[in-house]
Amino acid sequence: MKVMNIIHDSVVDGPGLRTAVFFAGCPHFCKGCHNPASWQIKNGTDMAVEEVLEEITSNPLTNVTLTGGEPFFQAMEVCELAQKIKQLGKNIWVYSGYTFEYLSHSDDRYQRKLLTICDVLVDGPFILAERDLTLKFRGSRNQRIIDLSHIYRKNRELDFY
């Protein structure tokens, strides 16, 4: 898989201290994106799932955030990684420029599967006109924080924040 960076002890990519994995490749090209270098998959470094997992486990006290770029752009590899992260008992947040509705009905079975593994989805593209620095864990007002564990593990109604 193509990875831009792995940052330990992030406090802006979800609650608590988190290891944030930034993936390369993004089809959204959001105006005002904080990470435009991640748009091109060729800008990432090739890393095997086990290499990324080893980096994550080197910081055992943190949970994990999958971000980008667009993690769902490399859904098959990221899905495999997410499964291994969950086996470690870690909480996983995933950021996507796609909406929950798009991903949950995607023709790509790995995109749908990744939703069922992750605990929380921050969805929707960054929209510069809706930028709001007061929002926690989001960049623009259109983005939602969706409790996927509530949806997929507890079989209850959709819960949007």
From TrEMBL:
SUPFAM superfamilies tied to this protein? Radical SAM enzymes
Name one molecular function that GO assigns to this entry.
4 iron, 4 sulfur cluster binding
The alphabetical list of record keywords is:
4Fe-4S, Iron, Iron-sulfur, Metal-binding, Oxidoreductase, S-adenosyl-L-methionine
What are its E.C. numbers? 1.97.1.-
Q: Which Pfam families match?
A: Fer4_12 (PF13353)
| PROSITE patterns, per the entry | RADICAL_ACTIVATING, RADICAL_SAM
Cofactor list: [4Fe-4S] cluster
Q: Which Gene3D superfamilies match?
A: Aldolase class I
Superkingdom field:
Bacteria
- Report whether NADP shows up as a keyword of the record: no
Q: What class of enzyme is it?
A: oxidoreductase
Catalytic activities:
glycyl-[protein] + reduced [flavodoxin] + S-adenosyl-L-methionine = glycin-2-yl radical-[protein] + semiquinone [flavodoxin] + 5'-deoxyadenosine + L-methionine + H(+)
Q: Which residues form the Radical SAM core domain?
A: 12-161
Role: Activation of anaerobic ribonucleoside-triphosphate reductase under anaerobic conditions by generation of an organic free radical, using S-adenosylmethionine and reduced flavodoxin as cosubstrates to produce 5'-deoxy-adenosine.
Q: Which family does it belong to?
A: Belongs to the organic radical-activating enzymes family.
* Stored PANTHER family: ANAEROBIC RIBONUCLEOSIDE-TRIPHOSPHATE REDUCTASE-ACTIVATING PROTEIN, PYRUVATE FORMATE-LYASE-ACTIVATING ENZYME
| Official protein name in the record | Anaerobic ribonucleoside-triphosphate reductase-activating protein
Organism of origin: Cytobacillus oceanisediminis
